[in-house]
Write a structure and sequence with these properties.
This protein is mainly alpha-helical. The chain has one domain. It is built from 3 helices and no strands. The longest helix is centred in the first third of the chain and has 24 residues. The protein is globular, with a radius of gyration of 13 Å.
Amino acid sequence: MDAQTQKIVVFLLIGLVAGWLASVVVGGGGILQYLISGVLGAFVGGYLFDVLGIRLGIKNALASQIVTATVGAIVVVLVARLIV
């Protein structure tokens, strides 16, 4: 597996974990919903944290990415519920 493929797999796994954690907080979902909400949440969380100037004091990059994506996934799920 080359480096680019490995990065994509790690990104998808982070999204999956973040989506699952978001579903624990706000409820519901299946594996596909976990993946979609987690991947979208990674972008939304990263954007929100950057705009709001939020810096997590987490030294571990993987844990920091999971927390950021989870917060973003929670936002994505709640906004989706408001729209639908």
